[in-house]
Amino acid sequence: MEAKLPDARPLINVCDRFGFVPDLTHYLYTNNMLWYIEGYVQKVNPGNAPLVVGQLLDDECPEDFIKGLILSVRSLLPIEPLVDECEKRNRLRLLTQFLEHLISEGSQDVHVHNDYISF
Asked: Which of 4, 21, 35, 52 lies at a C-alpha separation of 20 to 30 Å from 43?
């Protein structure tokens, strides 16, 4: 991270492999490299999207970017960890549109329906 590489892909691979996803997200966000965050969540590891969302909330990222990121991953996103990350930060309302979208697509996931009802 200190090297300020022009291409963040090697950094993304190392951080993903060794579990430094929040640090990676903070670095990419503070260096205005949002397209790498999108690429990481959409193509590299959608399963870590809850960690990314949690860090973006901590960094006070605009909600529109976070909502777009969540919607871009859709059903690949693990619901329970995402709800946990948002709940820790008292930002569950952020997920309303996403959960409605999954329900309208016909999701039968118990967590989707339970978490939507709890709002």
From this structure: 4
Sign of CA dihedral 107, 54, 15, 18: negative
pTM: 0.90
Residue 48, judged by CB atoms within 10 A of its CB (0-12, 13-18, 19+), counts as buried
Domain edges within the chain:
9-118
d(CA 32, CA 54): 17
CB 11 within 8 A of CB 5: yes
Residues composing the chain:
119
Radius of gyration of the CA atoms of the chain, in A: 14
Do residues 15 and 21 lie in contact, with contact meaning Cβ atoms separated by under 8 Å?
yes
pLDDT for the residue 119: 59
**Distance from C-alpha of 23 to C-alpha of 20, rounded to nearest angstrom:** 5
First-to-last alpha carbon distance for the chain, in angstroms, is 38
Report which DSSP code applies to 77: S
